[in-house]
Amino acid sequence: MAVRIRLTRVGAHKQPSYRVVVADGRSARDGRALETLGHYNPRTEPIEFSVDAEKAQAWIAKGAQPSETVARLFKQAGIIPAGK
What we know:
The chain is of the alpha+beta class. It is 23% helix and 39% strand. The chain has helices at 53-61, 68-77, and strands at 3-12, 15-24, 35-41, 48-51, 65-66. It has a five-stranded mixed beta sheet. Strand 3 and strand 4 (48-51) form a beta hairpin.
């Protein structure tokens, strides 16, 4: 099973916010998640990004691959080193 750390869309029509979730890579974008790690709201100023760093690092250590967007957010938050 390919496990991915990715964003799932929540929120009202034309007012998106996102949850950072761990899910099977084959499931739908808003499908069933194994675990919710945090949330991301790009519509606020400054952008709101909250995630449980310990859980995220534990999932990465188990082999979960973050999506490109989540990897960028993790690097900004210091969860993943900038060089990776």
